[in-house]
Amino acid sequence: MNRKDLPIIVLLFALLIAWPFIYKRFFAPPPRPPAQEAEPPTSPSEPQASEQGAAEAEPAAEPGLEGRAEADLATRPAPAISAAPEPAEPETAVEPESEREPAAPEREERRERLSTPRMQVAVSSWGGGVVNAELKEYPQTLEPDSPPVTLDFMPWPALTYTELPGLDRRADFELGVEEPGAKVRLTRTLESGLELVRTVSVAGDYSLEVTDVFSNKGPSPVSLPEHGLQVGPMAQIESKSHQRGFAFLGIDALLAGGRGVRHWGRKKFLSGELILDDLFLEEQHRGGCMMFRRLSRPLPAEIDEIQPIEAEWLGAKNKFFVQIVRPEDEANKYRLYARRAVSPRETKDNPKSWAKAPVLEEVRASIRFPARALGPGESFTRKSHYFVGPKKFALLKDLGHSQGDAMNFGLWAPVCKVLLMALNGIYGLLPNYGVAIILLTILIRVLFWPVTHKNSAHMKKMQDIQPLLKELRAKHKDNPRRLQEETMALYKEHKVNPLGGCLPMLIQIPVFIALFGVLRSAVELRFAPFLWIPDLSEPEGLLAGMLPGGFSLNILPIFMSATMFIQQKLTPAAGDPNQQKMMAFMPLMMLFFFYNMPSALVLYWSTNQCLMIGQLLIQKRRKAAKEA
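User: That's the sequence. What structure does it adopt?
Assistant: Structure tokens below.
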């Protein structure tokens, strides 16, 4: 490396270190408003208010237009399914769902609860869908008396139909109980003679089975337009750190024909596929670098797109929880919806205030079915399976149909699965995930001992020939070509590969990336304590609210950086002196990179560094003993 390049590298490191503060000051979205517990409405004129109540706002260029009162729905006439065949909806024109809102039901809403030892869902007579899901084993907070996590799907309940006039989320169903807490029956008949009888029953700890029977009870044919069956909205999980650059909200679809799961939340490595973030951008900016975008208009507050690709199931997820709907009959398309955070500093007349990239606040989706006609007396049955629960690989894998791929482990998925099984296996023996992470790290170090030992031997050889390399540099300082030839000859004579020190690190990179993917969003680590750390899925956040600038103290990243500094001092010096100077910045860079990472990740890396320091100390003692 040329000496002239060192200032540039230092400047780039400084920019990388300062980027979190620059982003927070100039680009960060506003904090989300505190969640409000939804109360069942007492009448149609008093709609429910919820944290996600603004989900279906029409795209607005100005802040403050994100929400729209559902009371306006009552002023719109209710469309009815036609008794004559109608053409299917054109694929090229996607009309916002908010433009096709039906009128609110006239009767008061009724809810029935289906329950398992691990889950409880509320089924509503309005639309016949699931309005919320209570996950009994997952508390909302760390408080001792914390209620369980409740996923609120209002105002777009899960398992309701979209674009099916008279049978959508505001349709007034007759709700009856067939088996208390286990099975309900919903019925609605339209003036055209079309009847929908829906049965919702418990099928597992976190699963429901839905059977819909469509029948034509009238004297004339009826036509069902193309329509969708939706999963409820999923919002970001409140956390101590937003972890910019890591996408936790997402939509997944298992593509038909064995094409695998399409992940819309995070871009696949070296893939040109679009993700949800890209859909907010004009076509010429999709996939490009954020820093070089020159937008001609503000990003829309929300996107709503139909994907003309066949999918077998569809899921929406956040960091820890997921919904998946899987119809048994063939679906032909699916629809994506996402809403972004809009900063109060963002105005339509000031391009400098426009966000260059969206920060998602909410996602939902619907799997779609083709239009079909029913003659008098005809009927058909549609059966669907619905999962709502933790994003836990063991549970999702047992569902079959590749639903375990909703974990989105990425390129190193096989390694991720092995590491996750090992982590949970150790936890089964010693029920503390902090201890399990430390023991797993030790296990990985033992497995890689031959590789790291070879690397240490290589570093020692490089250290032994440093005086000879120094002589060559002094002798041929004015002849770079001759210096390179003599250096390579010296390496060959002493059987040293200048790149040999990189190989052990390259071998370990897949394991580190895989463990990073496992630990950054493992629901098992949510609220898992270790020593002074109350939650391994979050940074420590000590003295939060007591330090200036909204900062908090995280001890583990500081300890990790200190161990990196000690390791560098113990590692035999070898290679280009300029590269050594550059590597001296690594502890500081890693401190800022890891400072707001989940404590589980920092614990893994700190343990790894401590083991490396121990290995280096043992080698130094052995060397000193031999020389003595």
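Residues 24 and 464 are 47 Å apart (CA to CA).
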